[in-house]
Design brief:
six-stranded parallel sheet; Rossmann fold; binds L-homoserine; Dihydrodipicolinate Reductase, domain 2; 15 strands
């Protein structure tokens, strides 16, 4: 199968390397900037890739919504399978792109968009086909986890920790989405839409890690607690809610002990109970592994199995996320998360939810 890879950054480069091991896959083109065309297979002409009928599969390894979204759409419209690692673009055009893929009878796969190398989408689809999933939550951003881990374990400053995460290839080209919670927002929207089999609300409460300082971490440490940035989605019967928030955890919990760029994602099903998935959530090689596993589904399996119909009609109800909220140095019991977060933002204070 002839493949065109869009982008030759951290992920695109690793995908190219790993694909050399896959029999039946051949990279015909890599889309790159005009001033970076160092190999014969590289081109800066996107038309060349999309208009070549021998290219059956497009790998989108670009950052940000645009032009990824337009490229994914163009690929699907021209009857090509698309495998994307781009959570921002997938989340942005989720319903439209999923429906287009179904209409065209091609695959749109995006395992690498959530949780790096962790096969979380595959498992949500597999478990969710049988069991009703009523919760998806977890640490879904490697950069912010790396930063919180360094700040907590070695007393590193916020800026130093961010710089290191960038050097290690975990952060986005523009790391704002990593630290502001928007990267987690994209991921929890994708995962909960698949888990609940509906296109979930996109305007959800989001708070990042920008207001978390060393003093707060030291104070939490004294109390035997830890802080992590998490995405949380819950469902009760026909209602659901989701949010992205710093979470205060007991230091003995599994999540509190997730270090470096690792992610940990939990799903909860009516029959199966709780399942937890742990692995590298960021970085070129783990993410490429997820991309290539998706390509193998197109090559060797019935990749249409890896789709949802998004048939459930559920309503968004922020009341489902209620509990202990921290606003600045005060704690409030039984507060609605969305209300607490709004208040913290308006008062320019730190916010966290306790799990
Ligand atoms: N910047 C993202 C992260 C990459 O740190 O998790 C993986 O999606």
């Amino acid at each position: 199968m002839e493949i065109g890879i869009l982008g030759y950054g951290t992920v695109g480069r690793s995908v190219y390397r790993l694909l050399q091991k896959v029999e039946g896959a051949h990279v015909k083109y890599v889309l790159e900037q005009p001033d970076r065309l160092t190999e014969a297979f590289m081109t800066s002409d996107a038309d060349l890739i999309f208009e070549d009928p021998s290219v059956e599969l497009i790998v989108d390894a670009l950052p940000g919504i645009h032009p990824s979204y337009e490229y994914i759409k163009r690929g699907l419209q021209s009857g090509k399978h698309v495998v994307s690692s781009n959570k921002a673009a997938i989340c942005y055009g989720f319903s439209e792109l999923s429906e287009l893929a179904m209409k065209k009878g091609v695959s749109l796969l995006y395992e690498a968009s959530c949780g790096g190398g962790i096969p979380i989408i595959e498992e949500i689809l597999r478990v969710g086909a049988l069991d009703q999933l009523d919760r998806v939550s977890g640490i879904l951003n490697g950069t912010s986890n790396y930063m919180l881990w360094q700040m907590e374990s070695s007393g590193m400053s916020y800026d130093e920790a961010l710089h290191q995460a960038q050097e290690l290839g975990y952060a986005e080209a523009d790391p704002t989405a990593d630290v502001s919670g928007f990267d987690v927002r994209n991921k929890i929207i994708i995962l909960s839409s698949l888990a609940f089999d509906t296109y979930v609300e996109k305007d959800i409460p989001v708070m990042g890690i920008e207001r978390i300082g060393k003093e707060l971490m030291e104070e939490l440490q004294k109390q035997g607690k830890s802080i992590k940035l998490m995405g949380i989605a819950v469902r009760e019967a026909k209602r659901y809610a989701l949010a992205v928030t710093p979470v205060v955890l007991d230091r003995r919990s599994l999540e509190a002990n997730v270090s470096e760029n690792f992610n940990m994602i939990s799903i909860n099903g009516e029959f199966i109970g709780e399942l937890k998935f742990y692995g590298q959530g960021a970085g070129g090689d783990p993410t490429a592994d997820a991309v290539v596993r998706d390509i193998e589904k197109v090559l060797f399996l019935d990749s249409t199995r890896y789709q949802r119909s998004f048939k459930n009609s559920l309503s968004y109800d922020p009341d489902l996320l209620c509990g202990r909220c921290y606003i600045g140095d005060q704690a409030f019991e039984d507060m609605r998360l969305s209300e607490g977060m709004e208040r913290a933002k308006s008062e320019d204070k730190f916010f966290a939810f306790e799990l």
